Amino acid sequence: MAAAAAAAAAAVGGSQPPQPEVPEQGPALDKAATAAHLKAALSRPDNRAGAEELQALLERVLNAERPLAGAAGGGEAAGGGSPGAAEEDALEWCKCLLAGGGGYEEFCAAVRAYDPAALCGLVWTANFVAYRCRTCGISPCMSLCAECFHQGDHTGHDFNMFRSQAGGACDCGDSNVMRESGFCRRHQIKSSSNIPCVPKDLLMMSEFVLPRFIFCLIQYLREGYNEPADTPSEKDLNKVLQLLEPQISFLEDLTKMGGAMRSVLTQVLTNQQNYKDLTSGLGENACAKKSHEKYLIALKSSGLTYPEDKLVYGMQESAAGTSTLVVQGFAGAPGALGQAESSDEEDQDGSQGLGKRKRVKLSSGTKDQSIMDVLKHKSFLEELLFWTIKYEFPQKMVTFLLNMLPDQEYKVAFTKTFVQHYAFIMKTLKKSHESDTMSNRIVHISVQLFSNEELARQVTEECQLLDIMVTVLLYMMESCLIKSELQDEENSLHVVVNCGEALLKNNTYWPLVSDFINILSHQSVAKRFLEDHGLLVTWMNFVSFFQGMNLNKRELNEHVEFESQTYYAAFAAELEACAQPMWGLLSHCKVRETQEYTRNVVRYCLEALQDWFDAINFVDEPAPNQVTFHLPLHRYYAMFLSKAVKCQELDLDSLLPDQEMLMKLMVHPLQIQASLAEIHSNMWVRNGLQIKGQAMTYVQSHFCNSMIDPDIYLLQVCASRLDPDYFISSVFERFKVVDLLTMASQHHNTVLDVEHERSMLEGALTFLVILLSLRLHLGMSDDEILRAEMVAQLCMNDRTHSSLLDLIPENPNPKSGIIPGSYSFESVLSAVADFKAPVFEPGGSMQQGMYTPKAEVWDQEFDPVMVILRTVYRRDVQSAMDRYTAFLKQSGKFPGNPWPPYKKRTSLHPSYKGLMRLLHCKTLHIVLFTLLYKILMDHQNLSEHVLCMVLYLIELGLENSAEDDSEEEVSMGGPERCHDSWFPGSHLVSNMRHCINYVRVRVPETAPELKRDSAAGTSADGLGALQNSGTAQVFSLVAERRKKFQEIINRNNSEANQAVRPKIPSKWSAPGSAPQLTTAILEIKESILSLLIKLHHKLSGKQNSYYPPWLDDIEVLIQPEIPKYSHGDGITAVERILLKAAVQSRMNQRIIEEICRKVTPPVPPRKVTAAEKKTLDKEERRQKARERQQKLLAEFASRQKSFMETAMDVDSPENDIPMEITTAEPQVSEAVYDCVICGQSGPSSEDRPTGLVVLLQASSVLGQCRDNAEPKKLPITEEEQIYPWDTCAAVHDVRLSLLQRYFKDSSCLLAVSIGWEGGVYVQTCGHTLHIDCHKSYMESLRNDQVLQGFSVDKGEFTCPLCRQFANSVLPCYPGSNVENNLWQRPSNKSTQDLIKEVEELQGRPGAFPVSISSETNLSKEMESVMKDIKNTTQKKYRDYSKTPGSPDNDFLFMYSVARTNLELELIHRGGSLCSGGASTAGKRSCLNQLFHILALHMRLYTIDSEYNPWKKLTQLVEDMNSQLGNEEQQPEVPILYHDVTSLLLIQILMMPQPLRKEHFTCIVKVLFTLLYTQALAALSVKGSEEDRSAWKQTGALRKNTCDAEKSYEVLLSFVITELSKGKLYCEEGTQECTMVSPIAWSPESMEKYVQAFCLPFLRISSLLQHHLFGEDLPSCQEEEEFSVLASCLGLLPTFYQTDHPFISASCLDWPVAAFDIITQWCSEIRSFTERHAEQGKALLIQESRWKLPHLLQLPENYNTIFQYYHRKTCSVCTKVPKDPAVCLVCGTFVCLKGLCCLQQSYCECVLHSQNCGAGTGIFLLINASVIIIIRGHRFCLWGSVYLDAHGEEDRDLRRGKPLYICEERYRVLEQQWISHTFDHINKRWGPHYNGL
Question: What crossing angle do the helices spanning 1036-1049 and 922-936 adopt, rounded to 10°?
């Protein structure tokens, strides 16, 4: 603030006397002198005078009387200069004074020397990249800055990099938060001992100056804060803060000076005397008075009082426990306190004012009053924090306050201050508009304070931290309560939070909750909490606010109008505000010693639950059609019970309430389970999608262990303690399927529509199976739980490592970041799963590394129950079953359609043994019997799933039968024993064999049973038998339940047995008129055993299919080998059950044998049941459909194949016609094309041309070739840079501009090729179509509104057949297939004749069958495609001439297109033709058509015969010199400087097409002579002076031998002689070092050089020959490539012997005398080198040996890239980009999407892609680790080439695990770049609108 002070000097008025001693605005010199003088004065023993003088100076310099410029209404204050100047001056004064006259920089350095840097304490803000190491962390919040992390040793640790969300600080050096082993090198040394003592006078001035400075800052903050009626606008606050920026930064700089300065600051900030003297507002200074008044107003307006009395906060006499809440009426909350009430109520709308909300008075303890409303500031620190909060935590202030934390004394003082302001923070947060930013900043501070256990404990003890936190949370939630509508809407007294309010919707509460969770993670603090009964009561009150929130009511009529999305807020609130603190507390209740804590929690939890039941008026029936997923009180209770039994050895019964309470407890969790089934049965569909969302969230991995798991556990506890019949009947009633459980074939369900019955019945049975099978909290160890969870997730789908981590509920404490327990995740994972490394199909999608279950897991551990419990989507259950089926088929274990396997469970903990009584209760047995009977009788609405569950339950019952089997002796008692029951006892083993004869059922009058029964009634048995066999009807299910309920409630009533059974409440009857029900009696005469045996027959479809296995082998019974785990289907399940039944009881065994002996009567002719018929039909239909499909596919494939062949044969006629043309003239057949649109075949004609589907794209891949095979490395330090001067494109550019400098432009443009950058590459999928069909296809695409990934307006489309991306059509030239062969006959003409013919043909203009003047469709298309080709690349890549638009330019461009395509094909073949064969793209090559089009257009330009290079090559021209002497005109390019390959293309494209083979060979021969001469000339320049003279002599000796013209020595010596006539070799001196190669030239090395020089030409010529004449390329070894290609091209004379080593010169065939023509060629150069020897030499050496292009080589570890680039500044805008990216082709660093580097509305990446890749860019996004491809106007995310240790990408670096290069992926990327297939392989393209 000093600055502000600034204005001081000029301020008017005020009661301060002028201070003459200080010069007004003295220059720096005076300041320094004054400062030095004052320092000396203060150093004297008697320094009063000095002190006064200094005070006076500071008064004047640091004076806040003048309002801040602009803040208080703007305008310059009278008299002040520019406010900035004055403030800066004040800061200058301060710096001078602190330094005591010395230089400020020196002063800083001096102070730093005394820094005992034990802690790092670096503070960072949001988005900073930091690290967290779980191995080294003690607190889960521990974090390190990158520097400390890399300086420490964390190899092999579990660490990750993360982007800070809220900001943080580095904990390096703080042993409270992390282990010392993880400290970095700098902070390992406890250096306090060897740091010298700070000299007294160094910081003396600071101690005087700083208090005034900070006071001045506070005065400015007071000044700037005008409290209007509404909250001050953000703008004003920000203005003040902006003006204070320099002052706060100054303070921040001071903190960075180290420990010595920090301790001075701490003294200043915490000294109470200083504060009192300066701020009391007493005394005569008006300014100070005014400032104090503003402070008081601000306090008051914040709802705070300033206590004048001496009662100091936190020191009350009342002990902590005395003032607990007094609960009145129902569990409430601390009510309206002080004035806060008014401010708090304003947010509420009137309708929900105080009237409805019953608030609870607090006891009159001062404690809570003081927490909420009293603040007294006693030091600068306290008031600074107050203003920091008031201004909503400005970042600068936060950073300053945090930078001070390494000072221990400060840390304690600040933490206490923070706690003291806690309530005020909450109030400010609630009102804030920017609550998100503010939340982050609050947590930024609090996490630094509360992560430290020692500190947290101290504050808890001294400042009642827990009381404050709980009260503040409670108070916060109070502002958004509404009346609960659960159960009894009218009279409910319960209040819940309203999830629609901003407080919950925006998660505004999370900073406070996260602090609370943070401090509960400390054992000492949690213990205090668990011991303090008052706190527990308050906390349970808080939790009860969430009990029953977000109530859903089922819509029965029309669809809900507005789908509220509040449900997510509700789930988040329960998870964060209730569950996480619960897990925190549970983590401290692990041992016996903590039993007391559990008892406390359970006790208050039950009390709160009881209050809740009373408040909602709950008796015994839940209200229908409503459900809430939020029962945090139930879940607290359940989880503490589970912990008590599992870890603390407590007796379960001692913690359970009475039966009546248990009955109430089970109702709501059961209601949730039933509602889940209803939601999945689509009964809630009118409530919209959000209800499905709730059902999914409830079981989703982050919520399940805090939601569904505790609910199921609580139900298991209730089931184990309640009467089993009561429980079972409750379940079926809750699931609304009671009416379905009747033997009658028809029934009427009063509460459920028929279409929902089946899925609800499945739901009820599945729930029972889960309830009885799940052991998560009933005895499984942590390791087993983890294993089961993992197996379940892996069985659903293969998973990546990270998704597994995400899907498996973290064991006790979600989000703690540390998975505690005895196991490690990795070891379990490796035990149950195999790692499938990512596979790469070049065209396939990028796969990630996946884990898949091992075979033995499928075989023994696959648990459908766990899978059903954990699936969010129902389809996952099916997916798991399909995978299981596939495994069984594959391993040969079971061929058919298996059922879910039966799995033996881990044994139950003794406390829960009662759970198994459910399996042995009559009610369940009646249900099972009824369902078996109904399935056997094929009643409607029963599915295989139901049968599966029924058998599962029977099997569970047999597995868990009681040990003391006295059932054998139980005699069948008289009928009176069981007059109301079906079964004699409750034991399943004996009940299975009990035969039920008659059943009385209630059926509609229309039912078929009534017709049948009349006969049965009169039968011999008569009704007497009926009486005895106990006819009960299952309707008693509901009655049964009520009876039990009454019994339990009226325990002491003697009339319990006659208790009136209440009727079914009227709500349950259906509105429609129910049909009349009458009673009928059915004859059954079956037992469960007999039903099972008949079921076996039914399932197997055979009579008598079941044969008891023990009849053959009695061993089966004695030592039953019942596996733990069984595969199979229904038949095997029945067999298993019967075997188990027989093993357990001899009677069962006998009865089974008896039933089997009674030969079952012949089955009625209806062999196949309806259901089976259905399935059989289905199977048959499926089979037929499959066959049909196969047939169709086969047909389609053959069509495609034949089509492909015909389409391709255009390019490879050799397949059709044999090569020997000795036979009669073959039939001339025209090429036939198929159109893929209209399906017609036919030749391409003038009027209706056919075209090839092609993609034209500009490419700069060739330009990236270098002469070095090693790829360049991506720069990762400042020193490494990539210079593009050695790329092919750069070299060619230099050559062209050099030629253009000295020679005639038009001639230059024929001497080279362009297209190395931005060349046009043409590729096709090989499909053809009529051009008119294509046009109509494009029209239809244009009208198609569907969003495509391409732009039809730019001519883009996808091939109608193969969907490959394309953008043009290449017309096929009409012609016959055979003509090529006619031209290939060996000709006997002499070379001279051929040369003549070539010359004549070139001179003949447009010798085409089509004259271009007559416009045909074909010629139009030819022209338009030529336009397309030109427009494919940018103008700068095709305009190289000095005179723009000259025809030479087009000429050059056209033959360069041919060159580009040939060169690229060469690269695709790996750079050489050794592999030979038809080209890889052979079938798909369009070069033939392309050549036709280019030739057609090139022949429109005639080369002036004067300049035709053919003449210079084949004739001796006289008087060259006279022409060259002509100075004004630039000379032509000497022929030796021409690029021979370009000449070849010019010569061939100038000939009429189709070309004769003999002419082609002739052209190649002639050009080879020139090439050879160029090679020799280059060699001569490369050699040294001595080499040259030696070569000259050897050659001269042999000049007159017969084959002189074919001897390289002779020719070389002649070339040297000729060239040395000029000045070419003269300048040897200067160039000595660069030119001379250290190697000595041997004949071999010279031959090798010459061959390497000529090879590129031979390769291109051979490729061209292959495409024009369809000759196959021979394959060969690398060393013989030259000779093979030479003979293939006809350069080698046929009689050439192979004994001698091969010599390239033998290929020469000179058209005229060699020496003459060489003389002629050399003379052209001679005249040029006389003037420019240097350039002459450079032009001779053509670098032709280019290696294959590569992308940059990337470092192994991604971190090296990240650390260098994510902080690197952009060279264009010099800022650090928000989204940095780097080009993988050339290494350029760019800003992605950065508006800073925008040029003509193009963002930098798009611009770079055009400059570097002619429209193709490959960028690595530094902050996301992914690669993005830009292709023209589209872009796509390609994926990442960096994977973590588990083979996964980490997009956006969210997980922050170390990433390593995946070479295969990078190769795939490079391959796609080189082969130009990005468009075909990547599918997800979108337009980028130039915004990348």
Answer: 170
